[in-house]
Write a structure and sequence with these properties.
Layout (H helix, E strand, L loop, with lengths): L15 E5 L5 H6 L6 E6 L2 H16 L7 E6 L12 E7 L8 H11 E12 L1 H10 L16 H9 L3 E9 L4 H10 L7 H16 L2 H14 L2 E8 L1
Parallel strand pairs: 1-2, 1-4, 2-3, 4-5
Antiparallel strand pairs: 5-7, 6-7
Helix pairs in contact: 4-6, 6-7
């Protein structure tokens, strides 16, 4: 499930790309398909890095990657071990809502982006996320816990006040929103609810096959129901 739209970003050979909070590697695999880039994946959890490594090796075996090299490391987004102006593209997807000191994390992300280059950030959108919180208190404890819900203005203020220029934004994953509402109503950690499991199978099928019908429906409903808010900035 790719949240950041790579077609909206200019990427050149030999660019250095960091996916911070890479999770299971969805954006890392996509980034490493760009010609001759250097891909860096980072996550706080070691198990996530193992899964990302396995996916990258799988795609390497298929000759499906075009990057010059890739590297994975465990690190904390509030204390990144990189020099100032290190990366041409930094991706931070569905991370900040988990971080208590999100302003320090934002400052670190900005610090490592090169001037004139891109920072792509995504967070859960306010409206769908608020409903999840109302439906289930347990939901906020999933995936290391969601500590806040963002409005778009809050994200813009946090980054633009620190030297970033806002470029554009969009919503993503509208067909995932009803799934999370159903999951919250049933209980986020339950695995025995037939309707939730059926919907999950549909989403997996959609991600693997990418049929035109669901792709079109997702785009049509994103302005109303998009689960994620995706924002693109450049460093001044």
């Amino acid at each position: 499930m790719i949240t950041v739209d790579f077609n909206r970003i200019r990427i050149h050979p030999h660019d250095r790309i960091l996916d911070i909070g890479c999770g299971e590697g969805r954006h890392m695999v996509r980034a490493c398909r760009e010609k001759s880039v250097l891909g860096f994946g980072a996550d706080y959890l070691f198990d996530n890095l193992v899964q990302t490594r396995n996916k990258l090796r799988f795609h390497q075996a298929l000759d499906d990657l075009s990057c010059a090299a890739w590297n994975l490391s465990s690190m904390d987004v509030t204390r990144l071990p990189f020099k100032k102006n290190s990366f041409d593209l930094v991706i931070c997807s569905e991370v900040l809502e988990h971080i208590p000191d999100h302003e320090l994390a934002a400052s670190e992300l900005i610090r490592i982006v090169k001037p004139g280059k891109t920072l792509a950030v995504s967070v859960p959108r306010f409206f769908p996320e608020k409903i999840c919180w109302l439906l289930s208190e347990e939901y906020t404890q999933a995936d290391m816990g969601h500590v806040r819900i963002y409005r778009k203005k809050e994200i813009l203020d946090m980054f633009c006040s620190r030297g970033m220029k806002f470029l554009r934004s969009h919503f993503a994953h509208s067909i995932h929103t009803p799934y999370w509402w159903l999951k919250c109503m049933a209980g986020p950690n339950r695995t025995d609810v037939a309707l939730v499991n059926l919907y999950h199978r549909l989403l997996v099928w959609d991600m693997m096959k990418k049929p035109k019908t669901t792709t079109l429906l997702d785009r049509l409903f994103n302005p109303l129901l998009g689960k994620s808010l995706v924002l693109y900035f450049t460093k001044l």
